[in-house]
Amino acid sequence: MLAKGPTPSVDPAIWRFTIHDGSQLLAQWTWAQFETLPQTVWRGDIHCVTKWSKLDTTWSGVTIDDLFQSAGVTPPSAYLLAESHDDYDTNLPVADLLGGKAMIATRFAGAPLAAEHGGPARLLVPHLYFWKSAKWIKGLRFTARDEAGFWEQRGYHMYGDPWREQRYTNDP
Ligand SMILES: Nc1nc2c(c(=O)[nH]1)N[C@H]1C(S)=C(S)[C@@H](COP(=O)(O)O)O[C@H]1N2
Ligand SMILES: [Mo]
Fold it and tell me: Is 10 among the domain residues?
């Protein structure tokens, strides 16, 4: 799929990253605070839902484990929505973001993440289809149930496992 809309420009001076449980704010960081969090490098392949894969990419940023740990957040539910500055969102099981499987990426191939690819910060969940990797991310919101995000409300799969080719809502 294409981008939902034009590339938003997100100024690090006013950038905030938040974690909510429903409407309740659990934690927030400014860009300067976020940059002091532990940095992890991830190298591997990513898969778009349409056809392409990009092999051997290198990203760095903050793992969701480190993010929750630095905020003292224990997940209050099993699902969340990743929310973005272009009003995009996408749903994920919390378990799929833990154990080093996902990060808030701020660098690609060693350079600051380009705005076109979600800079200054995007979610990276490489084991799921790439629409789950929300660009221009502004926060994570725990939800009591698995709530459909932007593409999931428009016919795409709630989970999106590329190995099982879970593209559309009713794909097994
Ligand atoms: N905020 C936001 N994130 C998004 C999208 C979007 O439209 N808005 N598109 C998704 C889709 S469909 C894909 S394939 C990837 C594309 O990432 P790329 O532009 O870095 O290749 O971003 C995903 N994340
Ligand atoms: Mo896509």
Answer: no
Is 37 within 8 Å of 46 (Cβ atoms)? no
Q: What CATH number did the domain enclosing 74 receive? A: 3.90.420.10
How many domains, the chain?
Answer: 1
In this structure, the residue with its CA closest to atom 12 of ligand 1 is: 131
Residue with CA nearest ligand 1 atom 2: 135
DSSP H helices in 41-116: 64-71
1 found inside a domain: no
Pocket flag, ligand 1, residue 89 (CB < 6 Å): no
- Do 158 and 152 contact (CB within 8 A), yes or no? yes
pLDDT digits (tens, 9 = 90+) for 66-82: 999 999 999 999 999 99
What is the model's pTM?
Answer: 0.97
Could you give the CA distance from residue 169 to residue 41 in angstroms, rounded to a whole number?
Answer: 32
Q: What is the largest CA-CA distance in the chain?
A: 44
